Amino acid sequence: MANTDYYDILGVSRGVGEEDIRKAFRKKAMEFHPDRNKSPDAEDKFKEINEAYQVLSDRNKRAQYDQFGKVGMGGNGNSGQPFDGSDGFGGFGDIFDSFFGDRTGQRQAQRGADLQHRVVLAFEESVFGANRELELTRLEDCGVCDGAGNEPGTSLDTCNTCKGHGQVRRAQRSVFGQFTQVTTCTSCQGRGKIIKTPCSNCRGGGKERKTRKISVSIPAGVEGGMQVRLSGEGDAGAEGGGTGNLYVYIDVQEHQFFDRDGSDLIYDLPINIAEAALGVNKAIPTLDGDDEDLKLPMGTQTGSEFRIKGKGVPHLHGNRRGDLRVMVNVRVPASLDDRQQELLKELAESFASSNGKSRKGESSEDDKGLFDKIKEKLN
Ligand SMILES: [Zn+2]
Ligand SMILES: [Zn+2]
Fold first, then answer.
1. Rounded CA separation 287/178 (Å)
2. How far apart, in Å, are the Cα atoms of 263 and each of 40, 90, 346?
3. What spacing in Å lies between the alpha carbon of 208 and ligand 1's midpoint?
4. Do residues 166 and 185 touch, judged by C-beta distance below 8 A?
5. Among 82, 136, 230, 342, whose Cα sits 20 to 30 Å from the Cα of 66?
6. What is the pLDDT of residue 297?
7. CA 55, CA 34: separation in Å to the nearest integer?
8. Residue ranges for the chain with pLDDT beneath 50
């Protein structure tokens, strides 16, 4: 037997769960079973697959193998080891009994499908929350037969094929001896009962499509790309499996004035050069409705940021709110009339003559008078 990694043999990666190992083994075993596969190396391959499965399906053996490789398997896993079906791994009959046994013979409860719905919110709604009524069509238990599938008042017959067991056992011979295969009864799909008179509403399926209106409360502070989960509002499940969930995906429209940065709102405030130099009072709009007064000091630079506390976005969890951040953008005029040019030239001369006299970054009193004139002209 080739000295190949057990995970490679089953074609799974190292971290996979037990269920995936079982599935992979089942697939490979079917493919290489010598009864089905007539290629000369099928038998060896089949033995390899069984060996890998015996180790990887056993939690302790798998942990040992993961840590030490085949050396840790007490010799059983060494390459070249003859595999006769009784070397401690158990015979093929055991393998197939345990494998194709009761687990596949029972109908499995299946959870209903999750449903998705998209909701577009106005910017204000994302900040302060919103209620929406969604209309959606989903699978529910039939209202007439309550999901049973038979017409109310009629009885069910015991399945003739499986005598009510829901499973069929079949003995199969192979080169390794006889093994028993247990499969789900196809006549009754494992229910053990046959519907004599199907429900007229669902035709025996037990489910029907229903259009429902569902109210969704979207919390304050959500952002585009988030989703709200409504547990149990999806499709109904099968065979006692739970109901799926409804996921409401949030899209948010842009706002004319505000941007968002986490729980802060961003407001871009353009001011002119005179306002920047002299300082100015500005009324700042808020999402709450009322304007907030903001005093910009003398010498406000472009890119300066001012915070209006608590006028941002509510935190999704908790009562706090972010801030409204005002970003100052000093605009240099692109065109000036004659008088403005005159004033600015005068200002330029004043700057030149006072050069060195005023401290760095400060304008002199003379300059302030000129700025006032410029400001009047610019407004
Ligand atoms: Zn029905
Ligand atoms: Zn049956």
1. 77
2. 68, 62, 46
3. 8
4. yes
5. 82
6. 97
7. 21
8. 1, 72, 74-105
Nearby residues of 195 by Cβ (< 8 Å), 6 or more positions away? 149, 150, 156, 157, 204
Enumerate residues 6+ apart whose C-beta is below 8 A from 99: 22, 25, 26, 29
pLDDT of residue 319: 82
Ligand 2 centroid vs 208 CA: distance in angstroms?
24
213 CA to centre of ligand 2 in angstroms: 39
Task: Please answer whether residues 61 and 55 qualify as being in contact, where contact means their C-beta atoms are separated by less than 8 angstroms.
Answer: yes
pTM beyond 0.70, yes or no: no
To 5 degrees, how large is the angle CA 112–CA 118–CA 119? 130
* Phi, psi at 337, each rounded to 5°: -80, 180
**234 C-alpha to center of ligand 2: Å?**
30
The whole-angstrom separation of Cα 139 and Cα 147 is: 11
At residue 139, the pLDDT reads 94
Distance in Å, CA 238 to ligand 1 centroid: 14
CA–CA separation, 31 and 24 (whole Å): 11
Burial of 345: CB neighbours in 10 Å, binned 0-12, 13-18, 19+? exposed
